[in-house]
Amino acid sequence: MAVQLYHVVLGFPFHIAGAIATSRDEKLLSILVNNLYSEIGENVGKDHISIYREFLYYLQLDCSRPEPNRLWKETIELEQSCKDNYSNHDMGVKLGALFAFESMSSRMVEKWHNALTVNGYPNNAFRFFTIHIDIEKEHAADILDVCAHYYKKPNFLDMYECGLSDVNSKLVNFWEKAYHYREECNCY
Question: Is 187's pLDDT higher than 60?
Answer without folding.
Answer: no
